[in-house]
Amino acid sequence: MNDIRLILSFVIIITITGNVKSENNMGNNMDYPKGEDFTITWFSLYQVDGEERFLQRMDLKNTGVIRLPAGNWALYFNSIPRIIPESINPEFKLRRINGHFYEIKPAINFKPLNPGDVLQITFVTQTPAIKESDMPTGFYLVYNEDNNPQSIKNVEIGAEIMARQTVRTNNDNKPVTTPESRYIENKNITHLGSEEVDKILPRPLDYKKGESYWPLDSEVQVHYPKVLENEAIFLIEKLEKMLGRKVSKIQGKSITRHTINLNLAEIEVAAITRKAGDEAYRLEIDRDRGVIITGSDRAGVFYGIQSLLAMMPVETYGILSDTILYEEVLITDAPRFSYRGLHLDVARNFQSKQTVLKLLDIMSFYKLNKFHFHLTDDEGWRLEIQSLPELTDTGARRGHTIDEGDRLIPSFGSGPNVAGTSKYYTQEDFIEILKYAHKRHIDVIPEIDIPGHARAAIKAMEARYHRLRSEGKEKEASAYRLIDPDDSSVYRSAQNFNDNVINVCLPSTYRFLELVIDEIVDLYQQAEVPLTIFHVGGDEVPTGAWTKSPVCDQLISNEALVKDIHSLPDYFLRRVNNILADRGLQLAGWEEIALIENQTGKKPSKIPNKKYLDYNFIPFVWNTVWGWGAEDLGYRLANSGYKIVICNAPNLYFDCACNKDPKEPGLYWPGFVDTRRAFEFTPLDIFKSATTDRLGNPINLEQYQNHVRLSESGKKNVLGIQGQLWGELLVDSIRLDYMAFPKLLGLAERAWSVQPDWAMIENVEKQRERIMDDWNKFINCVGQREMVRLDRIFNGIGYRIPRPGAIIENGILKANVAYPGLDIRYTTDKSEPNAKSSLYKSPIPVKDMVKLRTFNSIGRGSRTVTLSAP
After folding, report:
1. N or C: which end of the chain has fewer CB within 10 A?
2. Is the model's pLDDT at 458 over the cut of 80?
């Protein structure tokens, strides 16, 4: 650390102004400044040593009237960028308590902080901090360890992060977007007329437009067979909201100009006969015959209904209408992939039941059919298990704690205060979610993340253990314990935890899993919803786990199939698979469940573990970052016989920031992920969609010539694709909307629609031209139709509105938008543009400062762009 110390010796300044007075009697909290008496200002300064290490500074200002003493206090906070403890300036002692949770205490030479004084605290992180969302959060003070925390809520960004401060390494060539760069990028976008814009997204396989219109009005009737009653009711509820009146539903069939008929039958799509299970549909809208929706199964009928709803004219969105005119069409359609998924992590930051239901509604509209529900992780357990109430009493609560006896340590800025109740889904909530999803033909895949990422469960079961042991119930206390108390193994997880792995050698671990799985199975049965796939996570188990566990040493000695410590993951997976198989469930997990260490010393370091092929494990492939060596991992697994779900982080991790703009929230370890990244993704040949790596450098495909491509049999093993919404930065539903939309629309297009023709073009230049044409068509649909739908029909989804591109040339302002259909409004009097400001229509002369914002159909705007004339 000498290099860091040398740097800090030049850049660190401790500023304490005013006179230092003798200390008052500090015997009680009345003599201490409160949290409201402080302001913390954060600065991300610059990269250190050309590596992904960053110098940061926090200014602590005493804005109260009482001095901060020289000792007897500690400052706590969360930081996702990992802090190097010894890098802090010598007036302090910094300790990583666990995970992303840190403590700062004054050192011996610290002097009191008087009212009005500012103290600069500097440290280095071993991961980048180039965005405002990298800022430490959840600050609070504790005096004398009296367990009476004082929240510091006055936290601000000290200075705008400049482009030069976003360089992560010497090899980082990803630029920060500017008004000018956006303008250049948007220049290739053209505004299509409404008749040229696709009416349905994801785009159907075959769409034939007629010459007339069919009127949807008060005389409409829905006819259906008994087996399609769920779909009929769903359609009628939507129609009644559109028309503002009751709609008749009749069992049976009648074809007139006022009827909508729902039917089941085999359907020929693209010269292939689609049968039950194929989710295919045919939608006929005819002026004289009304609407006929035929599905190869109930799901196909449902998607035909969604396409009918999608075709509603934009001007009628969210408005009661007496008559709505629909174009005559004949559509035949079927999905490209059977698995079209979205993953949501509610463990890191909880999302309400209402938020989940709204997300399911939107998923079903865009024909996504798998909801991967990440319910547990290190930072939270979010599903009520009645037999083990500690899982939510302790595992779903966070707050200041000395021993985590009844709550977890704060995470992601959750702060010191326990809000009174845990944040989790009751069993009634979960059953409601299951039923809601099932009616929309969405399978809910529960994930209980084990054996790593299990800290919430571990701490909850320790709380149970200590409670029952204090009652003298020693045997009962140990029944579901997840750790070996004599285990002295040392490890560090990817998220910086040293105690987040359950002990796979304990019989109590499997009793715990059986109980939890049985209760979850029972919830599906109560909801009358099928459960076939159970996701067990299985990812990121850190090296070193179980190496010094006496219980594991004993198991290795006694169990013939467990030869050494490296055999324990196999032992665990086999036992968990047996538990699931006994209940008729298929085991799924992240890619690690199907991998084994390559003992030859040659790359790649992990290779497909063929012993699990007979178990039919489903690996979800994620860690395919360009330049990290595992880009073809999914293909190697599929070619070896595994059924896989492609979740590639560089294209489908929607919690990642759209771009490098410091104000754009999100993670960025695999690169930046925007809607176009999802839209351009070619899952069966990722090399066709390879453009730049995570640092913005062009990808040279020649270096990947030896990487595996999908075989024909491997293509059949790709079940589909899935977008991921990890929860570290999804602090509320507003942030979730912002990160998920419109990226989810790119996912839907790639998951449902046929492989685009440009995916087959070998010439890179011609391929990019064709992609641009297709992208232009897609974003016209998004901007002119789908964003308006999200505004007016889905209760106001707070999707990301991109800032306008703009440039001033020879005193003339030119501006453009990324999504045709959005408006640009501007001011020249230095005021902030609003929805009533001047509408930009064509280039205008400017003499001084001009401010611009993009606005959607309901007047919600983007961040402001400011330019000044030369």
Report:
1. C
2. yes
Task: With beta carbons less than 8 A apart as the criterion, state whether 699 and 693 touch.
Answer: yes
CATH topology classification for 339-755 = TIM Barrel (3.20.20)
Helix axis angle for 353-365 and 427-439, nearest 10°, is: 10
pLDDT for 417 equals 87
Query: Cα–Cα distance between 367 and 748 in angstroms, integer?
Result: 7
Residue pLDDT, tens place only, 163-210:
999 999 999 999 999 999 999 999 999 999 999 999 999 999 999 999
Q: What contacts 185, CB < 8 A, 6 or more positions away?
A: 805, 818
Q: Could you report the per-residue pLDDT of 657-681, keeping only the tens digit for each?
A: 999 999 999 999 999 999 999 999 9
User: What confidence score (pLDDT) does residue 26 get?
Assistant: 39
pLDDT digits (tens, 9 = 90+) for 201-236: 999 999 999 999 999 999 999 999 999 999 999 999
**Inter-residue contact 667 to 698 (CB < 8 Å):** no
Residue that the structure tokens 């200041």 belong to: 400
For the chain, helix, strand, coil in percent to 5 are 30, 25, 45
Check residue 30 and give its pLDDT: 53
φ, ψ at 364 (rounded to 5°): -65, -35
Identify the band that residue 31 occupies on the pLDDT scale cut at 50, 70 and 90: confident
**Domain 2-171, what fold?**
Immunoglobulin-like (2.60.40)
Residue ranges of domains in the chain:
2-171, 173-193+765-870, 206-333, 339-755
> Which residue, among 324, 104, 118, has the nearest Cα to 220 in the 3D structure?
324
Q: Do strands 718-725 and 644-646 pair parallel, antiparallel, or not at all (unpaired)? A: parallel
Does this chain's domain 2-171 share its CATH topology with 173-193+765-870?
Answer: yes
CA 406 to the chain's CA centroid: 28
One-letter identity of residue 808: I
Distance CA 205, CA 335 (A): 8
Tell me which DSSP letter residue 425 carries. B
Q: Is the dihedral of CA 102, 108, 114, 118 positive or negative?
A: negative
Q: How far apart are CA 477 and CA 481, in angstroms?
A: 7
Query: Which residues are CB-contacts of 482 (< 8 A; sequence separation ≥ 6)?
Result: 454, 457, 458, 461, 462, 502, 503, 506, 508, 509, 512
- pLDDT of 285 > 80? The answer is yes
Q: Are 459 and 408 in contact (CB under 8 A)?
A: yes
Average the pLDDT over 260-269 and give the result.
97
Classified by CATH at the fold level, domain 206-333 comes out as Chitobiase; domain 2 (3.30.379)
**CB contact set of 163 (below 8 Å; sequence gap of 6+):** 175, 176
- Give the tens place of pLDDT for each residue, 294-327: 999 999 999 999 999 999 999 999 999 999 999 9
Q: Supply the pLDDT for residue 419.
A: 63
Residue 528: phi and psi, rounded to 5, are 55, 45
What Å distances lie between residue 768 and 201, 213, 773, CA to CA? Answer: 22, 37, 9
The encoded tokens of residue 255 equal 């074809």
Confidence class of residue 870 from pLDDT cuts 50, 70 and 90?
confident
107: tokens are: 């050192």
The H or E element spanning position 771 is: helix 764-781
For 367, 773, 775, the CA distances from 681, given in Å and listed in that order, are 18, 16, 12
Q: How many Cβ atoms from other residues are within 10 Å of residue 530's Cβ?
A: 11
Measured CA to CA in angstroms, residue 159 lies from 81, 118, 759 at distances of 19, 16, 44
Tokens of 190: 């053209």
Sheet holding 805-809, edge to edge: 805-809, 812-816, 844-845
Q: In what order do the strands lie in the sheet with 155-157?
A: 118-125, 54-62, 38-47, 155-157
Question: What is the number of alpha carbons within 13 Å of residue 377 lying toward its C-beta?
Answer: 22
Cα distance between residue 188 and residue 55, in whole Å: 39
